[in-house]
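TICKET: design request
STATUS: open
ATTACHED STRUCTURE:
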């Protein structure tokens, strides 16, 4: 793929993933009581604390991912959060037969989203990001100059 497409596609990917997390976090913030009730209904301990954590992760780290700020950490934490929510809220293996397929789709969708996030955790945000503007690493251990030197 052309190097000229890497930055716009990386940004577009961050934008699309963030459109999942940011509105969900905002919704949880605006409907805090309902979120606490939903978490409590899943049998998780300390539902108010869990709801606050979910808001910080989804809204806060979702915005970080979108802006490309501390992208690697934001993506890694969002990936772990996404797998955890799949395990706690989309456990199709414990559902009645009429709900298995829907929950199975949600569970595997969570795993796929986590996979995409892990790519950002490894490769960084790309050039169209706050990380790039601040000089933070945008690639795995090597700089652009090192890669060019290795290719020559």
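STATUS: resolved
RESOLUTION: sequence designed for all positions
ATTACHED SEQUENCE:
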């Amino acid at each position: 793929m052309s190097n000229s497409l890497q930055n716009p596609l990386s940004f577009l990917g961050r934008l699309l993933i963030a459109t999942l997390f940011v509105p969900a976090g905002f919704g949880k913030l605006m409907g805090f009581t309902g979120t606490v009730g939903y978490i409590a209904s899943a049998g998780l301990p300390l539902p108010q604390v869990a709801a606050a954590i979910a808001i910080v992760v989804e809204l806060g780290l979702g915005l970080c991912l979108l802006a490309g700020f501390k992208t690697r950490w934001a993506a890694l934490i969002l990936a772990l959060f996404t797998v955890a929510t799949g395990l706690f809220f989309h456990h199709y293996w414990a559902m009645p037969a009429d709900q298995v397929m829907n929950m199975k789709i949600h569970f595997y969708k969570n795993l796929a989203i986590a996979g995409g996030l892990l790519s950002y955790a490894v490769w960084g945000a790309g050039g169209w990001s706050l990380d790039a503007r601040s000089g933070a690493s945008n690639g795995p251990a090597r700089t652009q100059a090192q890669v060019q030197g290795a290719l020559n």
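CLOSING REMARK: The chain has a mean pLDDT of 90. Residues 97-123 form the longest helix (27 residues).
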